[in-house]
Amino acid sequence: xxxxxxxxxxINFNTDxxxxxxxxxxSLDKVLNWTRRSSxxxxxxxxxxxxxxxxxxxxxxxxxxxxxxxxxxxTPRQADLMIVAGTVSLKMAPRVKLLFEQMPEPKxxxxxxxxxxxxxxxxxxxxxxxxxxxxxxxVDVYIPGxxxxxxxxxxxxxxxxxxxxxxxxxxxxxxxxKPALFVD
Amino acid sequence: xxxxxxxxxxxxxxxxxxEEMLLNMGPQHPSTHGVFRVVIRSDGEIILDAxxxxxxxxxxxxxxxxxVNYTKATPYTDRLDYLMAMGNxxxxxxxxxxxxxxxxxxxxxxxxVIVTELSRIASHLLAxxxxxxxIGAITPFLYCFRDREKILYILETICGQRLNYNYVRIGGVAxxxxxxxxxxxxxxCDYFLPRVMEYNDLLTYNGIFLERTGNVGVLPADLxxxxxxxxxxxxxxxxxxxxxxxxxxxxxxxxxxxxxxGSGEAGTVGDCFxxxxxxxxEMIESTKIIQQAxxxxxxxDFKHPKVKLKPKVPAGDAYTAVENARGELGFYxxxxxxxTAFRLKCRSPAFSNVxxxxxxxxxxxxxxxxxxxxxxxxxxxxxxR
Amino acid sequence: xxxxxxxxANGLKERFGEKILETVLDTHDPYCLVEPQALADVxxxxxDELGFNYLRCLSGVDYMDKKKTTDDLGxxxxxxxxxxxxxxxxxxxxxxxxxxVVPTVARIWPTADWHEREAWDxxxxxxxxxxxxxxxxxxxxxxxxxxxxxxxxxxxxHGIKNNVV
Lengths: 184, 385, 165
Hints:
Number of helices of chain B: 16
Shape of chain A: elongated
Number of strands of chain A: 4
Helix content of chain B: 40-55%
CATH topology of the largest domain in chain B: Cytochrome-c3 Hydrogenase, chain B
CATH superfamily of the largest domain in chain B: Cytochrome-c3 Hydrogenase, chain B
Number of helices of chain A: 6
Low-confidence stretches of chain A: 176-184
Largest interface: A-B, 34 and 38 residues
Oligomer: heterotrimer
Radius of gyration of chain B: 21 Å
Helix content of chain A: 25-40%
Distance between the termini of chain A: 38 Å
Mean pLDDT of chain A: 80
Order of helices and strands of chain A: HHEHEHEHEH
Number of domains of chain B: 2
Distance between the termini of chain B: 31 Å
CATH architecture of chain A: 3-Layer(aba) Sandwich
CATH class of the largest domain in chain B: Mainly Alpha
CATH class of chain A: Alpha Beta
Radius of gyration of chain A: 20 Å
Number of strands of chain B: 8
Structural class of chain B: alpha+beta
CATH topology of chain A: Rossmann fold
Number of domains of chain A: 1
């Protein structure tokens, strides 16, 4: 994109009716971000109690499909959004990191529930519980609650979509993939 | 199920060379209902052996119970079997009350029965809905969640939470129920009974469903007992055992209800269909229990007046078991006279139920593995604790 | 078929003599304290002669209290029968902390397989003759036994900080 913006004056929009009605001028970022945030594919990644609320969000009463985020994918390679729903134990932690790395860029992470935010009720005596998934992978949106209501998860999705609006497509180094607390 | 000789015959079919293959399923797999991992050793499509790996959701429940006082440990019991949290609360409360030696007021007992049975219906609805989804039918899932939301709404009105209630406390329940909730529950029962017929039309007698579940994953009764299976898994094998009837707790001895057992409608006794069908029939029985409890519920206290917020439990040990949605949920509590448990061991039903997996999946097809795991109805929260 | 706890305890004492170290009947769960090395025989007798076809629960316990009057470990076996729910009994063994070894009952009740692995994982009791005594709940390379009273949780696991900052 090294060339300058095309001179709008050079295009004559009044040549014929078909062009006049069907051409819309916008930036590439906006179009791609619009398509991306209108079909967010989350990954089916239920770990614990929050997964049940995630299922409820996808089911009849709350119906996440209404907001352009229907198809829960079973494989990370087809997903844009990872909803970490439930307690991450230390035995599971390497797998969570692997799954995150398998997702294609750009990728987003929602930490759903108190356990993934900070360890939640297990923070003090849970010797085998990861105290917050942000020690492992970068998180975009935190949803507190134990478990959060489906409305809260929907709100979290809206925040992700809001974030997607301002994505720069060619800016590949969007994220620092190394979380702050991960030593090594 | 195929026995060893049959496997040998299949492996030995003429000139076709076959090799054994290791197939890893989980911990991130949509049909394992959580973070359950099973390593399958297969020959083509035939499962020769399956090795289960658990512990990906080990949340240190027993250590926490030794560290915080009795009342503070109640919310952690919710998170064991998060599909039937009321039943866990009840089991834990009964275990502590047994050592405390208190008798809970009648009204509290009835409230406990009502909320536990509502919770059981919600749990079975989820089990049936996701089982349909595992087999390939998406629609029953949406129907089941529609009705499950109604139960969650009722439970939300009495304690403010949708999933982890912390409602049944030591010495009673947290809050009294009002007439509006009782009326709502009664309306729900009337609404729900015809819905079971709807699920049967949708899923149960569907030809594909019968093919996928009948004669698959047959669990003989003696094997089920040896592996300590309880609940619908054991009853699906034709054994009539239900702690609500055999060793009644709360006020279950005052109600008239049946214990459904598997009868081999779709093939052999103890196959996946029988386990599924037991859950379906149990929902009707639970509805009956709720209706009777609503008729009989007396006025009075909703908690024991003498039980303190931080009870000091006299030294001793006792094992208390309740019938949860998945089977016998037991708490072995050792108290040392302080306000904190000395040791609390949770005997979780799904832990024993899933340990039989390698026996019943041997000889089945790889695709049947999903059907078998789904019919055991595992909840990782209480398997790994 | 249902027997009273006295009958069960007498039956055990008659068969095993001084291997039954102690009998307590006036408690919630009547139990016999069994010598560890005789446990497998006692369990087999319970299953075949006394009709306990179902192992309800197997708990590993660390009995070390705050005053350190004892540092024993122990295993508690809750026996039951299906379908006779009133046929109950309990066996206990006490083991030394230095050498906590008890024969396995995984071949008598297959359900004990996983319960014993759990007791090994969390309390550190060695079940002699167990077919596959490996960690079941904690990760394979976990150190220590979490339910011991003197356990301290590690600060890091594979480079992941585990303590509360």
